[in-house]
Amino acid sequence: MKNIFTTLLLGISLFTLVQAQTQPYLNLENATKIADAAQEKAISENWNVVISILDQGGNLILLRRMDGTQIGSIEIAQLKAKTAFEFKRPTKAFEDMIKGGAVHLTTMPITAVEGGLPIFKDGIIIGSIGISGVTSAQDGIIAEAALKATGFM
Amino acid sequence: MKNIFTTLLLGISLFTLVQAQTQPYLNLENATKIADAAQEKAISENWNVVISILDQGGNLILLRRMDGTQIGSIEIAQLKAKTAFEFKRPTKAFEDMIKGGAVHLTTMPITAVEGGLPIFKDGIIIGSIGISGVTSAQDGIIAEAALKATGFM
Amino acid sequence: MKNIFTTLLLGISLFTLVQAQTQPYLNLENATKIADAAQEKAISENWNVVISILDQGGNLILLRRMDGTQIGSIEIAQLKAKTAFEFKRPTKAFEDMIKGGAVHLTTMPITAVEGGLPIFKDGIIIGSIGISGVTSAQDGIIAEAALKATGFM
Amino acid sequence: MKNIFTTLLLGISLFTLVQAQTQPYLNLENATKIADAAQEKAISENWNVVISILDQGGNLILLRRMDGTQIGSIEIAQLKAKTAFEFKRPTKAFEDMIKGGAVHLTTMPITAVEGGLPIFKDGIIIGSIGISGVTSAQDGIIAEAALKATGFM
Description:
The structure is a homotetramer. By secondary structure, chain A is of the alpha+beta class. Chain A has helices at residues 2-19, 28-45, 72-86, 91-99, 136-149, and strands at residues 50-54, 60-65, 116-121, 124-132.
């Protein structure tokens, strides 16, 4: 009887441990939905942008360049997504800090320009989106619209 | 009648001029069709890959990573596409040459592994595709299937 | 008569199709003319510079270093051309924004120093020019003179 | 008298010393002549190549990409010139060594493919030429023709 009880407790304990070892992640299906929402917003505004999405490991899962977008945005969109992911915050946060006088932050390997947003699920970061192509404020509008339309914000 | 004939000749002349100063290119719509065909082939084989497509200038226009694909393939898919674009030939051509004894070619900045194909239109290179994720022979099968399904091969 | 008219319409239709699928580009002959104009301006001012020209894909098509030019200008001229191409605007636009307080833009991989200009044809970007060697204002004067002398500005 | 003689000897000695502190170099005029010769040979063979020329410091002085040349040749032409300059020998020398079994040489940062030649004057290296675009043997033919036509070989 004692053994059974012990086994039962141990079983629960192991189960809890396993639960604690998983975390939410971003799959291509959801990344595609986010990108579609971003593209739809860009088209509705007649803007051309690059859409870049990273996953829960900070690795590129999807990139799309709309026709006519400036070539430099291929790299910038990825860099914005990288900064948003690596620091779990909108790239605008760094932009505002630097504009507000924290010029020393330009020595960090970050891209402090609006248009990058982290993607959270249940309080856990599962990826990020980076938009580049129009003004950085407009890039930010697209990024936000994409996450809101897909329930990630 | 003379006017119509003159107009017709003028039209041909302008057409020739435009032909001589313009060249074909790859847009997002066609890149998406190619990527969809690649993904469809990969799914049908139960393979997970990264699909990377460059445009007529060798610049990234689209990238997709299917769920479960090894992270290293993000870079490899792009490098295969880069080599195929930059040298206007399948990456397998370099793989075969090196395997055949041309070991000195490994000193060039190329990715000599099957899975990268140039994309031509009217004899002009308009981009390339790079696939990575399964064996390089399987990567090559996907790349070829994608171009054939979309009329680019 | 009907046949001629049909042919004419067909000609127009084909022409439109070709227009929609092709775009202008920069060849070595025109790049050479631009470089010659830049060099002529530099010589007339007794300035020594590096002249760098990229094509419609952002790839180097021509580079010349005039005797006595500082070695660092080899890279700077190319970087200015890269920034002008990638963002479809004069590098001076970024210089002015940063000088005007947009310090956060220094976190982008751009070269925000006057002397780089995009090259357009029919509203489409077909390349860029980057000049480096004298003061950035003088570099800019050469770049502008080169494009104006060749009808690209 | 003794003083005059001493002064004379001293003067000769100083003169010799000054002579020993200069060395031949490659200017843009001669680099252009070499490039023109290379291009003329390429045109006569109906080949498209990138021509790259480095100066006595190993720094790029001239680059030209002929229309239709594969984009990868922009980098390869410069790398061949770099290897030829840095090791004062034709890149083919390394290619032959590696083909002959010295595979370990592929671990060096060299480009061991024919088409790169050092440029000498009076036994001193004053630069190098790198050609890329056709087969490496054909690249080598152009490089050699260019130096022979201009008296540098």
